[in-house]
Automatic annotation (TrEMBL):
Residues 1-47, 239-280, 323-343 are annotated as: Disordered. This is tRNA-intron lyase. Residues 16-34, 271-280 have a biased composition (Low complexity). GO terms for cellular component: cytoplasm; tRNA-intron endonuclease complex. GO terms for molecular function: nucleic acid binding; tRNA-intron lyase activity. It comes from Coniella lustricola.
Length: 547
């Protein structure tokens, strides 16, 4: 016997009484084999494991020490330290990646797939040449062709955008249907009111006196017959009065008949013209001729179709229009079916086909020099000579190509665009931020707290040179002047995407910091110390929101 259950309210419920009745399966259902659910796609590792290294370097931290609360942690610390002393790990950097300087595009590219993956997952360096950011074109292509079941972030983004567009379309369709229904209700109410008013007016007319025909007025004698019939004496006036009245009546009847015929004809003509114009206008409103290649189609849209008829649920009435050469254009539905079948046939990939990876990782000049000079995990080769460029040669090459057109080494200045931007990049990378190019939002750099995979950028940076050294003041060197319109435009763009604007001023050292060959006199490390970076945040103040 089933034990009763006690509910929170205190009442006892019998399980046997509360359980739903069991319905025996039918013979057909019992004999049919149960359908197995589709296999679930295996989930990949979590993001914090994929991007656990913030830099392409391996570190071996010691365990925490809590001597006051847990004396046993000291023993753990000593064991870990002795283990690293007796069995030291491999020196870092243990892996050095290879990149190539392309003279045609003036960019630094990485072609090795393993290096591309490591540089992206260990610090978010570079950008895929065929992708938005992460170099996953090969994975996306395999997923599109059905060679693998993996999914990429771009596919989820595309699906989310399609769902959002479909939801907007459905909302627009519902609003248009509601407006159309309201218009029909108002027309019906107006028609009923007019019919009721007409009945009341007809009743009033039936109860009133009979209609009186207005008297005919005599017309002035302006015609030739009237002028000849005018009397010349009293005798003629007495004898021709009857003749004149007869002529006037005949003229009045003719005039009334002509006016009535003219009014009827004008009304008929007006109605005909109105009918023609309305039909033409209706046809012009509902029919839209669109020129395609290589045929011309005319599509008639329904009144209830939403603003995007290309995705309308109601079928469109397609009218075939003859072409100039007398041939009839093909049915677009048949063409679409043929195109869909052809696409489906092309999407079937044989099992032995291999997709060639055509993507490479493109590094910015600042990222390449940071990996080469600051971390030492990258070596850049000349694509023509296959020679490895040293840090000094790479610095001179990147400084020359930061101008357009490229300048010679004798024309370089301390305020080169590369030096200014690299000072800012090195500064924020050292603080733990992830700088990324910000050309999409009209700024120089975007600052991410952890990376573009985890969250959106919080700040947009604009790099501005500052000439505060006495050398620049003596020579009258001034920073570039910007207008308030420019500043408000950039700030408005960033505020629409929930980012804050930061103006980064870089103090430019005098030319004495460089030698005759425009190279750093005391090394790149000491030169970076002379580029002082100052941040100034700009916020848009609104009187309605900031009171």
């Amino acid at each position: 016997m089933a034990n009763p259950q006690i509910l929170p309210s205190g009442r006892k419920v019998d399980e046997a009484a509360s359980a739903p009745p069991v319905v025996p399966p039918s013979t057909s259902e019992a004999q049919s084999t149960p359908t197995t659910p589709p296999p679930r796609r295996p989930r990949g590792p979590p993001l914090y494991q994929v991007y656990k290294q913030p830099a392409p370097l391996r570190v071996f931290p010691l365990p925490p020490f809590a001597g006051t609360t847990n004396p046993a942690s000291l023993f753990h610390l000593v064991v870990a330290w002795l283990g690293q002393v007796i069995f030291p790990p491999a020196s870092e950097p243990s892996v050095i990646h290879t990149a190539f300087w392309d003279h045609e595009t003036r960019t630094i590219v990485v072609t090795d797939p393993k290096s591309m993956e490591d540089l992206w997952q260990q610090g978010f360096y570079g950008k895929g040449s065929l992708s938005r950011s992460e170099p996953n074109w090969l994975k996306k292509e395999n997923a599109r062709l059905g060679a693998t079941r993996d999914r990429v972030s771009e596919m989820a983004t595309e699906k989310r955008r399609e769902d959002r567009a479909r939801a907007k379309w459905e909302r627009a369709r519902a609003e248009q249907e509601a407006l159309e229904q309201k218009r029909l209700d108002e027309d019906n109410a107006l028609a009923q009111a007019e019919a009721k008013a007409l009945v009341v007016a007809q009743a009033v007319l039936d109860q009133g006196p009979p209609a009186v025909r207005p008297p005919k007025l005599a017309l002035a004698p302006v015609g030739p017959l009237e002028l000849l019939a005018l009397p010349n004496s009293h005798h003629d006036l007495a004898t021709s009065r009857q003749t004149l009245s007869a002529v006037q009546e005949e003229s009045a009847d003719v005039t009334d008949a002509s006016l009535e015929n003219g009014s009827h004809s004008s009304k008929n003509d007006a109605s005909d013209s109105n009918t023609t114009v309305s039909s033409d206008s209706t046809a012009c409103k509902l029919r839209k001729s669109v020129r395609f290649s290589p045929k011309v189609e005319s599509t008639v849209f329904e009144r209830m179709d939403p603003p995007s008829p290309s995705v309308s649920s109601s079928p469109l009435k397609t009218i075939t229009v003859p072409q100039a050469d007398g041939q009839v254009a093909a049915d677009p539905k048949t063409s679409e079916d043929a195109e869909a079948s052809r696409t489906a046939a092309e999407s079937v990939v044989p099992a032995d086909i291999v997709v060639v990876n055509k993507e490479h990782l493109q590094l910015t000049s600042e990222e390449a020099f940071f990996l080469t000079f600051a971390l030492g995990v990258l070596k850049v080769k000349n694509s023509n000579t296959q020679e490895v460029l040293s840090s000094q040669d790479l610095l001179a090459l990147l400084r020359q190509n930061s101008y357009f057109p490229p300048q010679t080494s004798q024309q370089l200045q301390p305020d080169d665009p590369f030096l200014l931007h690299y000072a800012v990049y090195h500064h924020f990378r050292s603080l733990g931020w992830v700088p990324r190019p910000g050309i999409k939002f009209g700024v120089d750099w975007l600052l991410y707290n952890r990376g573009p995979v985890f969250d959106h950028a919080e700040y947009g940076l604009l790099v501005l040179p500052s000439y505060s050294h006495p050398y620049w003041k003596a020579n009258g060197r001034e920073p570039p002047r910007k207008s308030w319109h420019w500043l408000m435009g950039v700030n408005r763009v960033l505020s629409k995407v929930f980012k804050s604007l930061v103006l980064v001023y870089v103090e430019v050292p005098p030319p004495s910091a460089f030698n005759e060959e425009c190279n750093p006199r005391s090394g790149m490390t000491d030169l970076l110390k002379q580029y002082t970076v100052r941040e100034q945040m700009i916020k848009r103040w609104s009187s309605n929101r900031n009171r």
